[in-house]
């Protein structure tokens, strides 16, 4: 079964990159948390006032513990919350922005290290013409390698421009591994800062070499 990552520029100028695994996982976790909270509530209402006081204190402690597990900058983002698989960040001289939680990359690392995978990228331009690129080998390294990309064995009609991202670590606003490319072009496996940006912001659109696109689908499939 293939994993699909869909990139869509959104109305706030941030790119929404959805990883099927991450989103479902977050959703499930959220639902479980909600159910737990509801159960705790019900238990609290049926107990005596001293019990209620103890329960309240315990709940407060649990809430405090939950807050401390969030990103240190999270409180500044309450008015502009990020998606479940994103973390809110601040940077000097820049307004609040969202970055992808590295859980998505961890999933890709675990997945692609369990066997051989290929990648297919499908793009649609502003005239609604469709293009594709396939790579017979696709893998994402572990955290120690900063989620370095391996992508080789090109075929398709887009041109082999992801070859320039091959061997590069993943770069974000707050984790610069590629000459500050993420500052202008979003998080990606940045190499030369000029060939492929499929995680770009709304104003700059999605980019593959010399052409802008309005939609991209990235699909990986196990081959062995």
Which fold name is given in CATH as the topology? Gamma Fibrinogen, Chain A, domain 1
Structural class by sheet pairing and helices:
alpha+beta
CATH superfamily: Gamma Fibrinogen, chain A, domain 1
Q: How much helical structure, as a percent, in the residues?
A: 25-40%
* Unreliable parts: 8-76
CATH class: Alpha Beta
Q: What is the CA-atom radius of gyration, in angstroms?
A: 21 Å
CATH architecture: Alpha-Beta Complex
Characterise the protein shown here.
InterPro entries: Fibrinogen-like_C, Fibrinogen_a/b/g_C_1, Fibrinogen_a/b/g_C_dom, Fibrinogen_C-term_domain. This is Fibrinogen C-terminal domain-containing protein. Pfam families: Fibrinogen_C. There is one protein chain. The protein is of the alpha+beta class and 224 residues long. The protein has one domain: Gamma Fibrinogen, Chain A, domain 1. The protein is 28% helix and 31% strand. The protein contains four helices and ten strands; from the N terminus they run ββααββαβββαβββ. The strands form two sheets. Strands 1, 2, 5, 6, 7, 8, 9 and 10 form an eight-stranded antiparallel sheet that branches. Strands 3-4 form a two-stranded antiparallel sheet. β1 and β2 form a beta hairpin. The two termini are 12 Å apart.
């Amino acid at each position: 079964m293939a994993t699909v990552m869909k990139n869509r520029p959104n109305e706030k100028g941030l790119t929404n990159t959805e990883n099927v695994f991450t989103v479902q996982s977050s959703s499930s976790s959220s639902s479980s948390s909600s159910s737990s909270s509801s159960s705790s509530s019900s238990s609290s209402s049926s107990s005596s006032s001293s019990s209620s006081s103890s329960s309240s204190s315990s709940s407060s402690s649990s809430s405090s513990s939950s807050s401390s597990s969030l990103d240190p900058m999270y409180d500044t983002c309450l008015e502009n919350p990020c998606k479940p698989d994103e973390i809110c960040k601040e940077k000097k001289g820049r307004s609040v922005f969202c970055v992808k939680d590295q859980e998505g990359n961890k999933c890709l690392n675990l997945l692609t290290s369990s066997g051989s995978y290929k990648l297919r990228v499908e793009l649609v331009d502003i005239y609604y013409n469709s293009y594709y690129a396939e790579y017979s080998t696709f893998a994402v390294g572990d955290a120690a390698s900063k989620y370095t990309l391996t992508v080789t064995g090109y075929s398709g009609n887009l041109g082999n421009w992801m070859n320039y991202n091959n061997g590069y670590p993943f770069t974000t606003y707050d984790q610069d591994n590629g000459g500050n490319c993420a500052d202008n072009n979003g998080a990606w496996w940045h190499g030369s800062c000029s060939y492929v940006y499929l995680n770009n912001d709304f104003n700059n659109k999605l980019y593959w070499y010399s052409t802008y696109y309005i939609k991209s689908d990235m699909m990986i499939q196990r081959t062995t």
